Amino acid sequence: MRLKILWRIILMGSLVVMLSVSFDAWPALAQQDGPQQSAPSQQAEPVKPPAGGPASQPQSKATDQKGPLPQVAISVQSNLVSVDAVVTDKDGNIVTGLKRENFRVIDNGQPQQVTNFSPTDAPITVVMLMEFSKLAGGYFGYKAKDWSYGFLNQLKPEDWVALKTYDLKTTLVEDFTQDKREVGQAISSLFFPSFSEANLFDAVFETLNQLRDIKGKKSILIIATGFDTFSKHNLDQTLARLKETDTTIFCVGMAEEIDLYGQGANLGYIQAKNQLSTFARMTGGYAFFPRFQGEMPDIFHTVAAYLRSQYTLVFSPSTSQDGKYHKLALEVVDDQGNPLELADKKGKKHKVLVNAREGYVAPNAPAGN
Questions:
Q1: How many helices (H) and strands (E) does the chain have?
Q2: Distance between CA 90 and CA 343 in Å, rounded?
Q3: Mind listing the pLDDT tens digit for each residue in 62-85?
Q4: From its phi and psi, is residue 136 left (phi > 0), alpha (psi between -120 and 50) or beta?
Q5: Among 166, 197, 200, 161, which residue's Cα sits nearest to residue 181?
Q6: Tens-place pLDDT, residues 95-111
Q7: Separation of CA 17 from chain center
Q8: pLDDT digits over 231-259, tens only?
Q9: Which of 68, 176, 188, 67 is nearest to 128 (CA)?
């Protein structure tokens, strides 16, 4: 009976969201400077990756705007490994001003020599991957639509953003563009979900594959419940793909009502929540599970700030090229080589926190070696 009441609440909430999104959320974006453009139609083709050079920018309506995307070595290329890391104090405040000498990289337990280092405030390249399905009567789909506008307010003119949605299939709604109003109009054009499925694993798998060849920093912002209903890929396959990627994943969970209003543990939701948390942890991102829409501005501000404040560390592994997964550990030290500590408001010192991807898949040794 309690479950029926919960779903009735959710279904009533979906009607409120449906009526409010088009009239309340979009005008704030539409009032910004620049020409107004019509909403793009949904596309089935994959994301067209920006290759990082002036002659190969994203093939979208924004190719005549800002210059090329940043060019940074990624993943394992010529036996180089690149790791993006965010350093914070215990309260989550970002630590800036660190130097190469402040970082220690450990690959499968062995210290590595950092060959390239850059404290960057680079433009963001992000895919907003949004669950837009008829799950729970479409309530969560409309909730994702309503919430997603807020992230656009955190983007700068030089940032690149694409929009994808998923239900039974994954759909490219807006390709990479620097015009966030185009993405806002694309969000506004979403009216009725087509399917009740929410194939999260397939959507993540497909999007990671499409981002594989994009040079520089890139990320995925997943706005979803965390449920997967009918994917061709299973969780283990998705996690194996995450081990290979250098794409940072941030997750915003939308289904805290299930925990807030439900009675007792909901094992299905606990698993869904753990899946989003794992995606973020493995790739050096963060997962957020807000209960109220008022939390969203701070969350989206945090996501953008973390993406802009990543240190990039590049090293040539001294470990073997064995085609296996290598665990990474990053340490931050002071000028004397001791673990870096910062004082809190009460003057008590705490070690800083480092967030980066947990590992990488090494290439196989060349034939004949």
A1: 9, 17
A2: 9
A3: 333 444 433 333 344 458 899 999
A4: left
A5: 161
A6: 999 999 999 999 999 99
A7: 24
A8: 999 999 999 999 999 999 999 999 988 87
A9: 176
**Cα–Cα distances in angstroms (integers) from residue 271 to residues 126, 197, 253, 256, in the given order:** 26, 17, 12, 13
Tokens of 283: 């790739």
Tokens found for residue 138: 């479409």
In the block, residue with structure tokens 């909430």 = 13
Q: What is the pLDDT of residue 59?
A: 39
DSSP for 179-202, written as a single string:
-HHHHHHHHHT------S---HHH
CA distance 211 to 248: 11
Domains identified in the chain and CATH numbers: 2-31+122-308 (3.40.50.410), 76-119+310-361 (2.60.40)
User: How far is 205 from 175, CA to CA, in rounded Å?
Assistant: 18
In the chain, % helix, strand, coil (3-state, to 5) comes to: 35, 25, 40
Contact 73, 82 (CB under 8 A): yes
Angle between helices 235-244 and 200-211 (to 10 degrees): 20
Question: Beta-strand (E) ranges in the chain?
Answer: 76-77, 80-88, 103-107, 110-112, 114-119, 125-131, 160-166, 170-177, 219-224, 248-253, 287-288, 311-315, 325-332, 341-343, 349-351, 353-356, 359-361
What are the b/e assignments for 208-246, b being 16+ CB within 10 Å? bebbeebbbbbbbbbbbbbbbeebebeeeebeebbbbbb
Q: How far apart are CA 306 and CA 354, in angstroms?
A: 12
> Could you give the CA distance from residue 239 to residue 249 in angstroms, rounded to a whole number?
12
Q: How far apart are CA 351 and CA 340, in angstroms?
A: 6
197: its two tokens? 């499925």
Distance from C-alpha of 269 to C-alpha of 275, rounded to nearest angstrom: 10
Q: What is the DSSP letter of 118?
A: E
